[in-house]
Write a structure and sequence with these properties.
single chain; 979 residues; alpha/beta; Rossmann fold; 6-stranded mixed sheet; 38 helices; XPF_nuclease
Length: 979
């Protein structure tokens, strides 16, 4: 451990009630938690041996999987504490055995299981030594962590230790840190930023060798970045005009992070139903633009273009930024990185700036204006176009290979042999990327050539186009007038014949581009089929090369496809001999083609030079040092396992940088060199610097809050729970007569609510417990909450309500409640931070739609007239409603509530009100008879005892029971109708 970690643990142990620790992102949170547990275990063992009591298990909550693995590994290495992961599917008997196993046990639990075990007394608070919460930034007064802390501190002053490595989340909202401490009954706040004196001294004592590599972006990337920033700035300006958002939060720097969405939604959620469609779309567009800016430096050019095509299809209709001028620049530059349409003389065909592609339509035949004629002559005169492949590589790819070659050269000069010993400075090289996809792609670029990687991505893109347009299916019979311009043959005419010129109008550039892509896709598709049919004829050059590190050769099938595509690459109107043979064998001819779709790579040389380049790439890949790839999104700490000597940070991340600093400080004798790859003058640099600046500002705010914080006396939990002093008097006692003799207040019994175990995923049991209601967790077959022997409640949040209507589950739930309880209640609970409405006034249409949520609710009430609907504004409003509903009701019985809806061994369902008093099958049959409605079927049941007796009743008696002469005659005629 580093000295500042020992000091942080010592500060925590000074207060026996616990504390809240906020550390910088990337500092060793797992080491702090594990060391604290070991110290607490040592204190507990010492007090037990001296006869001072103590002992018990340690409970750990809200631990992510990666952090849980680190803590478990450190505790197992110490061999002092037993570590168990108690999942939700562990039986109750096994959990009770773990709770009572004695000292030296650390348990990872879920809040839902722990809350239920505390309420059912499966776990006694006296058997708990300490509680650790590892995600304190998620705690609030209604969270499960606060619920468990309250349950444990009701009986004894248990220490609660909370940790958080998200300082920016601890300042989100008003007095977030103070409210968190109040909900967890913590009185002390410990702050450990990166600029802390002790932390800075330890981390800077033996820093690693850092080399900052700035990679210039290509001109299309610079243009795309500028266009995206312009679009974001325009959206932010439009959002500022609403006057409903704090202007200080609407900046480009904050818009680079995911938390920006939370900031905006937190301000707009309470008034979301009053906003127009444009404002709502602006919020979604900012999220989309942030992803586009992030993916620009992460994805290759083909994948980025594919993502843009997806956005155009999914968001093109309703998106606001798509209509801006900068969006045209984004799409055009993204295409230019992959391909471009050129004339035979080399001039590029492009759309005029600011003119959207979808507006360049084919001119109708009946328009014969002079301008249209000129355009037609201009397009048709230059009818021969080429599809030139650019396939721009990511600039970092080349720099990464150069760095690896430089590292390998230095290792050869130093030792002559590349060692992989972890204690040797010539160890492995670790490359840190954002996600797993980037790791796999970089591994392909190193083991093979980047040109081959881009070629495969391009072929996948074209095959995706072919699949989208149905080119992968069997050819269908064409009509006399072909609609695809012969795209299936890899060509498309533009009117070279006189007859075609008479009938054809000017061809739009967008259609020309689409047809060219489809023709290229058809060529790739046909060559793939030919390669599959000719696996035996493998070119001799295809046998060269291997993938480094795994000893596997490239499959023959892949090489055949690649060689075939390269042949297609060099094709013009007059095909090569080999390709001409393939075309003849497939029955196709290209002699009628007037527009030659030739895919010429901008960086590729002729065939012999290309082959030699590939051989050099394979040779370089063999001579590269051993490389390991690490995905930052996985949150796995691998530095202590792999112990690299060189780290290349391909996608800079502040958290990983701190982990490198801690790793080097813990291993001062090991040499470590770190390369940072930044795109020069990019949003990547801005985002990295903004993340550091944002964390420093968050800690400065926490330091100010700590200096001004007022800690209540009862915050340690001594005065926990509702007391007569702070709880308002019930309504009945307020209205009591004071002149009545014996003015002593009657002792009221405690309220209790039976709660389904699955409901502990929500925060309502926590709020009910805050109100002083006793919670009884059981497994219910009918309903979610049982308030009394007569009242059963089915709780639905807004999202769950929509899903229940879609699946039909709500209908069955209401039907079972009506069958077993006299007062079934459907509780529709809204979020306190969101609008108290299903939809805004502007979204309400003039016509009634059966798919609308209001229509579905109306049909539900019409079908079940006894159903009662309760609308709740928030969790606290729900608790008040429950207390009002229970005011004149008896307390529910736990055993009876558990047996409701559960058949016995004889198949009889207990407490089935309808089954005991009525024949449910006969009732359902009665309600389906003509003339019988929901308003008269109960009177019919009271007037006769069976269906046979109903059939014998005269019409006059039916009129009295049904209240309608027409309905009585209809029923009588139906019953006595002859077949």
């Amino acid at each position: 451990m580093l000295p500042f970690e020992e000091q942080a643990v010592a500060d925590l142990l000074e207060d026996p009630n616990g504390g809240l620790v906020v550390v910088s992102s990337g500092l060793p949170l797992a080491s702090l938690a594990a060391t604290l547990l070991l110290h607490l275990h040592h204190q507990s063992t010492s007090s037990s041996s001296s006869g001072g009591g103590g002992g018990g298990c340690f409970l750990i909550l809200s631990a992510p999987d990666a952090l849980k693995d680190q803590i478990r590994r450190r505790l197992v290495e110490s061999q002092l504490l037993q570590v168990h992961d108690v999942a939700s599917d562990v039986p109750a008997a096994h959990r009770r055995a773990l709770y009572s196993s004695g000292e030296g046990v650390a348990l990872f639990l879920t809040p839902r299981v722990l809350a239920a075990d505390l309420l059912t007394a499966h776990l006694l608070p006296s058997r708990v030594q300490a509680l650790l919460l590892l995600a304190a930034h998620r705690s609030s007064d209604t969270s499960a962590d606060a619920f468990i802390a309250r349950l444990l501190r009701q009986h004894r002053l248990l220490p609660v230790y909370a940790f958080s490595d998200r300082p920016h989340a601890m300042v989100a909202g008003f007095a977030k840190a103070e409210r968190t401490m109040k909900s967890l009954y913590i009185r002390r706040l410990h702050l450990w930023p990166r600029f802390h004196v002790l932390a800075a001294a330890d981390l800077e004592r033996s820093p690693p060798e850092v080399i900052d590599v700035r990679v210039p972006m290509t001109h299309p990337m610079v243009g795309i970045q500028a266009a995206i920033l312009d679009a974001m700035d325009a959206c932010l300006k439009e959002l500022r005009r609403t006057y409903k958002v704090d202007v200080e939060d609407l900046t480009i720097d904050k818009g680079l992070f995911k938390s920006f969405d939370e900031i905006v939604r937190r301000q707009l959620d309470p008034i979301w139903h009053t906003l127009g469609k444009k404002t709502k779309q602006l919020v979604a567009d900012l999220r989309t633009l942030r992803k586009l800016l992030d993916y620009l430096g992460r994805y290759d050019a083909v994948t980025y273009l594919k993502y843009l095509d997806t956005l155009r299809v999914s968001e093109g209709v309703r998106s606001v930024w798509m209509l801006a001028e900068s969006s045209h620049k984004i799409f055009e530059l993204a295409k230019r990185r992959v391909y471009q349409i050129v004339r035979p003389d080399g001039t590029r065909v492009s759309i005029a700036k600011g003119t959207p592609t979808k507006k360049r339509k084919v001119t109708p035949k009946n328009e014969d204006s002079a301008a249209n004629k000129d355009d037609a002559q201009k397009v048709n005169a230059e009818a021969s176009f080429l599809l030139e492949e650019v396939l721009e590589e990511a600039p970092k790819w080349k720099v990464l290979r150069e760095l690896l070659q430089e590292i390998a050269e230095e290792q050869r000069k130093g030792d002559g042999v590349v060692h992989e010993d972890e204690n040797n400075e010539c160890g492995i090289v670790l490359v840190a990327c954002k996600d797993e996809r980037s790791c796999l792609q970089l591994q392909e670029c190193i083991s093979r050539s980047p040109q081959q990687v881009m070629r495969e991505e391009w072929e996948k893109y074209l095959l995706g186009k072919a699949e989208l347009f149905g080119l992968h299916k069997k050819k269908k019979k064409r009509s006399q007038q072909p609609k695809g311009f012969g795209v299936l043959d890899g060509e498309f005419p533009t009117g070279s014949n006189e007859n075609e010129n008479e009938n054809a109008g000017p061809v739009s550039i967008s259609k020309l581009e689409t047809n060219a892509l489809l023709a290229a896709a058809s060529g790739i598709s046909s060559l793939t089929k030919e390669a599959d049919a000719k696996e035996d004829s493998v070119p001799s050059c295809g046998k060269k090369g291997s993938v480094k590190g795994k000893g596997k050769r490239v499959p023959k099938k892949t090489l055949t496809k690649r060689q075939a595509s390269k042949r297609k690459n060099k094709s013009t109107t007059e095909n090569d001999n080999c390709q001409g043979t393939d075309v003849e064998s497939s029955g196709k001819t290209d002699e009628q083609s007037d527009i030659n779709v030739s895919k010429v790579s901008a960086e590729d040389a002729p065939a012999p030079a290309s082959t030699s380049d590939n051989v050099e790439d394979f040779i370089d890949a063999k001579m590269l040092p051993p490389v390991q790839f690490y995905a930052l999104d996985s949150d796995q700490h691998v530095l202590d396992i792999w112990k690299p000597s060189v780290i290349i940070v391909y996608h800079p991340d502040m958290t990983f940088v701190r982990e490198i600093e801690v790793y080097k400080a813990e291993n001062p004798s090991q040499k470590l060199r770190v390369y940072f790859l930044f795109y020069e003058e990019s949003s990547e640099v801005q985002k990295f610097e903004s993340s550091i600046r944002r964390e420093n500002e968050a800690f400065e705010s926490l330091i100010r809050q700590k200096s001004l914080m007022m800690i209540p006396v009862d915050q340690s939990g001594r005065c926990i729970g509702p007391t007569p002093a702070n709880e308002p008097e019930p309504l009945l006692s307020q209205n009591s007569l004071t002149r009545k003799a014996g003015g002593r207040k009657p002792t009221g019994k405690d309220m209790q609510v039976i709660v389904d175990m699955r409901e502990f995923m929500s925060s309502l049991p926590n709020v009910l417990h805050q109100k002083g209601i006793r919670i009884i967790p059981v497994t219910l077959e009918v309903g979610d909450y049982v308030l009394s022997p007569l009242i059963c409640v089915e709780r639905k949040s807004i999202a769950d309500l929509y899903q229940s209507f879609a699946s039909g589950r709500l209908y069955n739930q209401v039907e079972t409640m009506i069958r077993y309880y006299k007062i079934p209640v459907l509780l529709i609970e809204f979020s306190q931070d969101k609008s108290f409405s299903f939809q805004s006034a502007s979204e309400v249409g003039d016509d009634v739609s059966p798919t609308n949520i209001i229509s579905k609710l109306s049909l539900l009430v019409l079908h079940f007239p006894r159903l009662r609907i309760v609308w709740s504004r928030s969790l606290h409003a729900t608790a008040d409603i429950f207390m009002s509903l229970k005011s004149n009701q008896d307390e529910p019985d736990e055993n009876k509530a558990m047996r409701v809806g559960v058949p016995s061994e004889d198949g009889v369902v207990e407490d089935d009100v309808r089954a005991e008093n009525y024949n449910t099958s006969a009732i359902e049959f009665l309600r389906r008879l003509p003339g019988v409605t929901d308003s008269n079927y109960r009177a019919i049941m009271d007037g006769c005892n069976s269906l046979a007796e109903l059939a014998l009743l005269p019409v006059e008696r039916l009129v009295e029971l049904m209240g309608s002469q027409k309905g009585a005659r209809t029923l009588k005629e139906f019953l006595f109708f002859f077949f």
